[in-house]
Amino acid sequence: MTGMALASSVLPAVTILHPQRSFAGINSDTLKVGLVGCGGRGSGAAAQALKADPNVVLHAVGDIFKDKLDDSLNNLRKIHGDKVKVDEEHKFVGFDAYKKVLESGVDVVILATPPHFRPEHLMATVQAGKHVFCEKPMAVDAPGVRKVLEAAKIAKEKKISLLSGFCWRFHEPKRATFEKIQDGAIGDVLSVYNTYNTGTVWSHPRKPGWTDAEYVFRNWYYYTWLSGDHLVEQAIHSVDMMSWAFGDKMPLSAAGTGGRQVRTEPIYGNIYDHFAITYEYEDGAKGFHFSRQQVNCEGSYMCEALGTKGRAVANVSRNVHEITGRKKWKYSGVANDMYQTEHDELFAAIRKGEPINQGEYMANSTLLGIMGRMAAYTGRRITWDEAMNSTEKLGPDTYSFDMTPPIVEVARPGITSFS
């Protein structure tokens, strides 16, 4: 799919046995990549995958929109030429396109559809024994997160790589900064302040011939059941950095607020345009998250950790990575292309037969965003256990362009219930 329903090193090369492929050694066999979700992020990830290894080809693609699929292939061919080996028989369009990609003989799958579909697609991918690059976030609700955790266990059992799209974890300046935090450079972490304050995002005006469902699928960002809201879909990067600063320990609870102040028209579906969430940890530490998507407002994209011995900052907007306090430090190395590094490390792991499995932290970071949304939507404090065990399932189980899209009102704190 695209940004919808279906929807950056030369390395030693994995013995691939058929029909059940094994990557238990180092070899130079061609690795076939399948792309599920041909939007901008999926196409970008495919371009990076094709650059990550000298013997990788794009073998199959799938999306629910043929125009997205065609545009993606045209652009990828301009970049990678003969590495794009997708014939007509390996272009799959429809809500079941991901299944056909998995059945096409691929070795590595890129999942880059809207988040609602991620758990289903991930489970199918690991059950099929394919290595996977899984774009963030991993789900839009707790049942989806639980499925992702189950899929991560299967991936570990099958010894296949599962790598997340939390790209800042692959950015060398941030790796250095957060390693300093974890090594005690600022002492015990007392609080982490993080932001993702930006402008608005794209929307697609309705065209003649579109059904109600097609309009919703093409504008998936504005519907919580498809995107998880912008706290989960976009600002989750900042929430993930907060979790990283805390050593990926989970909070006890979250409380907060949010709403729609300026983005109130029906074209914006039912998502909020701002959030403010406080996460509370067992040792009394707190995480403070602020995000908004409002034009003509002050922007901020950063993570700042305060500890008993100093302060650490990873400021995306200003490209500042430093520690002040008893141990002063500032990153002075080269900034890598984190998107490329994701795929460099994934394909290196596959070639070496040393699987990477990031399933647990990527699922937990996703749930941090979901529980923050739950707290803002309901107006109540949500515990980690409540969030993880929530039975609220967003969206239907079957899809078509003739379906009636779920009609969901904008959440109203104090009135919207928790389940």
TrEMBL record:
SUPFAM superfamilies: Glyceraldehyde-3-phosphate dehydrogenase-like, C-terminal domain (SSF55347), NAD(P)-binding Rossmann-fold domains (SSF51735)
Superkingdom of origin organism: Bacteria
A single GO molecular function term of this UniProt record: nucleotide binding
Gfo/Idh/MocA-like oxidoreductase N-terminal domain sequence ranges: 31-155
Start and end residues of each GFO/IDH/MocA-like oxidoreductase domain: 179-312
InterPro entries: Gfo/Idh/MocA-like_OxRdtase_N, Gfo/Idh/MocA_oxidrdct_glycsds, GFO_IDH_MocA-like_dom, NAD(P)-bd_dom_sf
Pfam families: GFO_IDH_MocA, GFO_IDH_MocA_C3
Protein name: Gfo/Idh/MocA family oxidoreductase
Organism of provenance: Larkinella punicea
